[in-house]
Amino acid sequence: GIQVEQSPPDLILQEGANSTLRCNFSDSVNNLQWFHQNPWGQLINLFYIPSGTKQNGRLSATTVATERYSLLYISSSQTTDSGVYFCAVETGGFKTIFGAGTRLFVKA
Amino acid sequence: DSGVTQTPKHLITATGQRVTLRCSPRSGDLSVYWYQQSLDQGLQFLIQYYNGEERAKGNILERFSAQQFPDLHSELNLSSLELGDSALYFCASSTSGGGTDTQYFGPGTRLTVL
After folding, report:
1. Phi, psi for residue B84 in degrees, rounded to 5
2. Min distance A56 CA to chain B CA atoms (Å)
3. What is the DSSP string of B15-43?
4. 3 state SS of A3
5. 3-state helix, strand and coil shares in percent for chain B, rounded to the nearest 5
6. What's the mean pLDDT in B73-79?
7. How far apart are CA A106 and CA A18, in angstroms?
8. What is the pLDDT of residues A21-46, one digit of tens each?
């Protein structure tokens, strides 16, 4: 089946720093989403981005479907950005596959 | 608040027991998904329903079953529970579930099997 790999697995930032999270997938997908799981466990949708670039405030994402990767950019990080960031892809069989996540900690 | 509700928030039970988790999707969403999040397996897709019909099946054990009712709420039934079933169970919903729209997640049900 399709493999979804996220890097780095862990990231520690000083407040105000920028970062890039990567998601590689091994086959073509119909859908790609980025989620943030906050320290209370809530999963929040950040972007639905099967291709192209989107921006929402300090966050932006780019998916290059032909090269099978997606990037999530976090600028001017804040302590509230801490948590786990997941990439999830949906295959032709309507199955959603999550990566293992990138655990981010932003220090004040 | 995503608009997806799940009950109960927490559930503690014993091995061998059966439990039912409930999910109400966002208003207007026809598709419901169930996921299991555990420390060793990460987030795993279990099953998807669309307008009452099963659409996709993932890593769902035979001891688990689900259904979506005419009012579009869904229930996940877990039986013959084992210690390893302890996990956070999420429900998500989307408009069509055809692989082209956003999934919105509920707050989850934390199941502890003792």
Report:
1. -70, -5
2. 15
3. TT--EEEEEEPPTT--EEEEEEEETTTEE
4. coil
5. 5, 55, 45
6. 98
7. 11
8. 999 999 998 889 999 999 989 999 99
Report the gap between the CA of A96 and the closest CA in chain B (Å). Answer: 6
* Structure tokens, A76: 């001017």
**Strand ranges for chain B from DSSP E:** 5-7, 10-13, 19-24, 31-38, 42-50, 53-57, 64-68, 74-78, 87-94, 104-105, 109-113
Chain A residues within 8 Å of chain B (Cβ atoms): 30-31, 33, 35, 41-45, 48, 50, 86, 88, 90-98, 100-101
Q: Decide if B33 and A30 are in contact by the 8 Å CB cutoff.
A: no
Reduced to 3 states (helix: H, G, I; strand: E, B; else coil), residue B85 is: helix
Position A84, amino acid: V
